[in-house]
């Protein structure tokens, strides 16, 4: 737990935020916080028109945004009091979705009342957070993102970002632990994620084959099948198979992120 982590966490987050975005389908780019409401000012270095409607987003510089990130995000989540790595996972979440939502996610994984505030109890429980809590927080964050209407537009990038943040956060935590071989531990995490991806892919493929009528499996269909029932079963099976494929892709992203973090 150290305030010197702010600069490192900010650098990691800004690498994901990029430059100016004026995407009209992103509610955050509008001063009113909803598509078509207010003025389309955009987002730059993660500073959105929805959160900062009075700023000239186009003209922002890195030096302009540093104090904003410190005051509006890092200090709001109590970044200086969080364990190394857990601070990054919480901070990046806060930048994307607001400090209150990020803190409610934190409170859910550490077992504190979910009021969205960095109070004494939250800080005390968060002080013992480690890799398990980092992973749980990132999983909750991604689940929230999937619930958003703009997931189809930004989902691929968000999935990649959260995987990278998780891996970098775990790496930061491990490297702060005396006597821990962080490189070996990260390689192990990558291996486990890769194995899980393979298992999910195989399960998805098996369900897809079964749902399509058991082609190639030697399975016998009823002599007089109920076409409506078969249709429903097929659709449910294919949806389930698709969900497993999506989860497998997520695990592959995590595997690659952990490998990169361990280099």
Automatic annotation (TrEMBL):
The chain crosses the membrane at residues 227-246. InterPro entries: Lysozyme-like_dom_sf (IPR023346), TtsA-like_GH18_dom (IPR008565). This is TtsA-like Glycoside hydrolase family 108 domain-containing protein. Residues 12-98 form the TtsA-like Glycoside hydrolase family domain. Keywords: Membrane, Transmembrane, Transmembrane helix. It comes from Rhizobium mesosinicum.
């Amino acid at each position: 737990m150290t305030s010197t982590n702010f600069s490192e966490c900010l650098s990691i987050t800004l690498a994901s935020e990029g430059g100016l975005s004026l995407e009209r389908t992103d509610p955050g780019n509008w001063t009113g916080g909803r598509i078509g409401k207010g003025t389309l000012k955009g987002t730059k270095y993660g500073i959105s028109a929805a959160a900062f409607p009075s700023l000239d987003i186009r003209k922002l510089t890195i030096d302009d945004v540093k104090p904003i990130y410190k005051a509006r995000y890092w200090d709001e989540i109590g970044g200086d009091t969080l364990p190394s790595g857990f601070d990054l996972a919480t901070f990046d979440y806060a930048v994307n979705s607001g400090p209150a939502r990020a803190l409610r996610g934190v409170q859910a994984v550490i077992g504190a009342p979910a009021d969205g505030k960095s109070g004494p109890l939250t800080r005390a429980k968060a002080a013992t957070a480690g890799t398990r809590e980092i992973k749980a927080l990132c999983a909750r964050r991604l689940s929230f993102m999937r619930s958003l209407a703009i997931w189809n537009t930004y989902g691929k990038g968000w999935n990649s970002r959260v995987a990278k943040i998780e891996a970098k956060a775990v790496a930061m935590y491990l490297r702060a632990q005396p006597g821990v071989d962080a490189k070996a531990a990260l390689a192990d995490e990558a291996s486990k994620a890769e194995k899980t991806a393979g298992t999910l892919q195989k399960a998805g493929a098996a369900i897809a084959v079964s749902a399509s009528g058991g082609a190639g499996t030697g399975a016998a269909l009823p002599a007089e099948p109920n076409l409506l029932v078969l249709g429903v079963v097929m659709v449910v099976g294919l949806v389930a198979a698709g969900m497993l494929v999506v989860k497998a892709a997520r695990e592959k992203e995590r595997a690659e992120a952990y490998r990169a973090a361990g280099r």
